[in-house]
Amino acid sequence: MTDAAERLRRRYPKPRVPRLLMVGLISVGVVIGLTWLVWTALLHSRPIAAGHIQSFEITSDSSVSVTIAVERRDPSVPVTCRVLAQALDFQPVGERQVPVPAASDRVVDVTAAFTTLRRATAVVVKGCTVA
Q1: Which of 43, 52, 120, 126 could pair with 85 in a Cys bridge, judged by C-beta atoms 3.0 to 4.6 Å apart?
Q2: Same domain (yes/no): 79, 36
Q3: Is 7 helix (H, G, I), strand (E, B) or coil?
Q4: pTM here?
Q5: Which residues pair with residue 21 across a beta bridge?
């Protein structure tokens, strides 16, 4: 071995963890990560309940009436949907938790009215959860 090669071998020693073991550990980590990713994507792709705005009406400068369509996987489960009224600058001006009772249909329409702090220009459903 030449003098330069000997200096390089001393400066850069062999790794402490064998290469095959490192490749195996990384492979196991990647398999676990991909399994978790697929499981999470499948779980959250179909929530227990989802709400969508059917229609809304600005009844005055301080009140809103909204009809939401709520779809549930299991119609016998009551849910609560959070409805938010927004002003022209997208600031929240009113909020209401709308209860959706158990029913026989998967998709039900629910109408609610609530008071706002100032004139609303849009209404959105922020999410639905099991009651």
Answers
A1: 120
A2: no
A3: helix
A4: 0.70
A5: none
Note whether 49 and 107 are within 8 A (CB). no
Q: 27 with 63, same domain?
A: no
Helices (H), 14-129: 19-44
Boundaries of domain holding 35? 3-44
The Cβ-side half-sphere exposure at 105, using a 13 Å CA radius, reads 8
63 and 92 both lie in a single domain? yes
For residue 60, the cross-strand partners are: 63
* CATH number (domain holding residue 68): 2.60.40
Backbone angles phi, psi at 50, to 5 degrees: -140, 140
Say whether 13 sits in a helix, a strand or coil: coil
